[in-house]
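[Target chain]
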Amino acid sequence: MWEITRFQKRDRGTENNGVIGVLRKVIAMVENTVEAAVEAFSKGEPVMVFDSDFRECETDLLWPAIFATPLVMRRLRRDCGGLLFLAIGNDVGDKFGLPWLQDIHTHPALVEENPVLGALITNDLQYDNRSAFTLSLNHRDTYTGITDHDRSLTTRRFGELAASMADKDSIEAIAALGNEFRTPGHIPVCREAPGGLNRRQGHTELAVAIARLAGLPPCTIGAEMLQPDGDRALSVADAREYAEEHGIPMLTGEEIMKAFGLS
């Protein structure tokens, strides 16, 4: 999984001067970081993920959806400052028939009926050419849907339902979804791109990837971490300081890609 073979082919002089030893230590550190993050996530503990210097340059604080509690939602709300979102695997989105909003908003019939959709077309994203957003949801047992209790119920039950519907057909899954949830709601849902990290390396795909590595349903609740003044994303240095202070494993998108044999 971890690339070292190309370095092992160098001559003995290179190895003797310590380069190989340093490389092995670096790779071992990355492996240990990923393993720590996977172990924590599998236990329902948080993980932080910084995407890339070449993308949004943001760090997300993430929890497995099935472990969502009011305390988790409160932590995301208070410590992050960005949008709370539920990242789901493309397979889950397909099972439940959840469309990407961008596809709905550009549907010719809907644009003709609602010309404002044509005026609001998403054609100028600075970090991607596709938005991951699908429908927003509330659980039917919520009141307004915005409280920490309500949002944790929506999040947790979606993750649990996704797991229980894994072996069911879409007709049954969509019916089950409709029995428990309504739209619009207060949990924005983001759907992984087809092909996952092979096609798109956004926060949605990275958040889903962590859940997959941990052997959990591919449903992750998270939020972007902002500077206290809210004017920009939390710096990587400040994010790492937060992670160390709270004992939270922090990964980069590159480390997650390598865990899947991608780079």
Remarks:
- The domain at 5-259 is CATH 3.90.870.10 (DHBP synthase).
- The chain has one domain: 5-259.
- The CA atoms of residues 86 and 189 lie 5 Å apart.
- The chain has 13 helices and seven strands.
